[in-house]
Amino acid sequence: MAPEATTEVTSEQSTLETVFKSLKVECSNHIAEVVLLGPGPGNAMGPEFWQEFPVAISELSRDKSVRAIIIKGSGKHFCSGLDLAKMMPVLAKSGKMLGEERSELLRLIVSMQDAISSVENCAKPVIASIHGACIGAGVDLIAACDIRICSSDARFSVREVKVAIVADLGSLQRLPHIIGEGRTRELAFTGKDIQADEAMRIGLVTHVFNDIESLDTGARKLAVEIAENPPLVVAGVKKILNESRDQSVAAGLQNVAVWNSAFLHSAELEEAITAFMQKRQAKF
After folding, report:
1. Residue 111: in which H helix or E strand, if any?
2. Which pTM was predicted?
3. Do the beta carbons of residue 156 and residue 204 sit within 8 Å?
């Protein structure tokens, strides 16, 4: 068992400067908050989101001052899914689609998949802080996050089947690892809503808070707990967990052995051990 140690987070200024239309990004004390703004109703994901979101996550992934990221929604909901009014003319052109048009649609879908996968590929842990509706592509987004928490008014739906779409942005691939194969199939086949307590019961979320205010506080507290740990080690934990999900135990053990042989001996390790021996707070 690792020795208990308290830590002190050092202060650095974020270098993030890009301004977005569909998102608001705020950084302080090593924590970044990505707030969904829409502009579609219920923070629906339109063309601006798919262009801007992966840029924001990529910038935060590279930003050395950021150690944890919170994704949350503005207004009454986390995310109502695709902005159908803006996206359907592109995704569902009327008439016969020729090979060139189908290839273009394929490229668009893959780019949207990559936008969601940017969360999973981000070097920093990402917390989804969910209130109100989390529907369709919103579920794709939270499934790519490392941790999901919600308020008691949250509801979730893999809704694509209701609009004649096979969910194609990651829910069908990631949810079985989170809530199991059978529950994923039930949600995807029916398109039904589940409430916060059911989401907690099946393991989709790890905490349910009474209201949005306590949810915000809880998300921030969790992010601070993560940020207090050495960032290189946290990045390694995320990388190994992601890769081990699709590996055998033996392959996963080999992978983490290679990681530690390369990165274990670090200034962070020296500081952690020195602080423990001196019975003081570690400074990472």
Report:
1. helix 99-121
2. 0.85
3. yes
The pLDDT of residue 6 is: 35
Other C-beta atoms lying within 10 Å of the C-beta of residue 155? 19
Cβ atoms of 181 and 208 within 8 Å: the answer is no
Closest CA to 169 of 118, 93, 128, 125: 118
For the segment 182-214, what is each residue's pLDDT rounded down to a tens digit? 999 999 999 999 999 999 999 999 999 999 999
Domain 7-227 has CATH 3.90.226.10: yes
231-283 fold: Lyase 2-enoyl-coa Hydratase; Chain  A, domain 2 (1.10.12)
Burial 204-221 (b: 16+ CB within 10 A, else e): bbebbbeebeebbebbbe
Q: Where are the domains of the chain?
A: 7-227, 231-283
| Local confidence band at 7 (pLDDT 50, 70, 90 cut-offs) | very low
User: Measured at the alpha carbon of residue 107, what is the angle toward residues 106 and 108, in degrees to the nearest 5?
Assistant: 90
pLDDT at 95: 54
Longest dimension (CA), the chain: 73
